Amino acid sequence: MGRDPLIGLVGKPSAGKSSTLNSLTDASSKVGNFPFTTIDPQRAIGYLQIDCACARYGLQSKCKPNYGSCVNGRRSVPIELLDVAGLVPGAHQGKGLGNKFLDDLRHADALIHVVDVSGTTDAEGKNTRGYDPSVDIAWLRSEIMQWIKGNLMEKWGSIKRRHVAVKATAAETLQAQFSGYGSTMAIVQRTLDKLQLKEPLEEWTEETIEKVVNAFIDEKFPTVIALNKIDHPDADKNIAKIAKQQDPNTIVLCSAISEIFLRKMAKQGYIRYVEGSDIVETREDLIADGDPDGGGLKELDEKNRNRIENLKDMVLYRFGSTGVVQVLSKAAELLGLVPVFPVKNTSTFGSGGVGENKYVFRDCVLVKKGTTVAEVARKVMGDAPIAYVEGPGGIRVAEDQVVVPGKNDILSFKLGK
């Protein structure tokens, strides 16, 4: 297996990309020994919320992950994020951080495009009013398209000649060209299967090549459109316009700055806040519900009390959440990520070490849809020889079985030849 999935965040200056990244990587409320970590200036660890296997067996109280956290069966799993900086019109021509932006982009398995849906920043991130944010979505796509298509067209003549000379398939020739973008043969094959092209590669026109590149982008860079700053008065009309233009399954409405504020207030003991929900409770709320101590929360000053009430009305009650947790969940959904829980003991679900069996489901790995049990074994165990694999209750699992949520996702790998 290759490396873990990598989610890239892109967005023009002042769109809220940094706030979104900060809200996704804020580990202040997590338990376990996996604090927020910056891997390098551009890479960090975010937390994807999933349903943990412990809830299936009523073992929530015994679930203590090695990394991330699990609260009442809702698990936060670390996932790597990439801050792709330098998005400006003309990047494919070298403008802004042009070449570096595109070079960083190719490492990502999926993208989160943070869009300022308020329309208060122009294409370069400068303050304005009435800007159409749907333009930003179109030109990100255009930059990637022009980058890949331009590279292909520049050497298309020699690509065709070699294709014919070695009698390669279209998939083999395209993979040789697309491997530099982090592609795999499976991605190229899905691209071609989607298009069902009749003409051989050596007869493709520029129009056909553009269709191929567009389909490849869909497969290689599935993109979540994170419409940020939804609490702004101008956001509604822009959301309505974008919703008509884009696949609604790729859109998430969010307010990153609201999420950061709520987590800060919860950390400081002023509120109780359930991340990803519309539930915020203050001391006054809890006293009104019959708790004379107000849950031990601190008293809010008038400014913060008013801000929280406005945030409830403008964001939480209208949209159901700040949307930040849902942004990562949508990226995982587009990638088809499946959580798998390696255990030592398939009866107790413990890790088998000294004192480890009192805790369950200590580890969780994320794999892409279609991954087999054998591929998970290689990801978890490396080159160690596997004699056989067990599922819950000691039942043996065939290595060619595919893992899906709730099936073949709790595995114990038994060593031997």
TrEMBL record:
Record's GO cellular component terms: cytoplasm
Key words of the record? GTP-binding, Nucleotide-binding
The residue range of the signal peptide is none
Per its UniProt record, what Pfam families does this chain match?
A: MMR_HSR1, YGR210-like_G4
Enumerate the GO terms in the molecular function aspect. Answer: ATP hydrolysis activity; GTP binding
Tell me where on the tree of life, at the top rank, the source sits.
Eukaryota
Outline the extent of the OBG-type G domain.
5-274
- InterPro entries given for it? Beta-grasp_dom_sf, G_OBG, GTP-bd, P-loop_NTPase, YGR210-like_G4
PANTHER family for the chain: OBG GTPASE FAMILY, OBG-TYPE G DOMAIN-CONTAINING PROTEIN
> In its UniProt entry, what is this protein called?
Putative GTP-binding protein
> Species name for this entry?
Chaetomium thermophilum (strain DSM 1495 / CBS 144.50 / IMI 039719)
The organism's taxonomy opens as: Eukaryota, Fungi, Dikarya, Ascomycota, Pezizomycotina
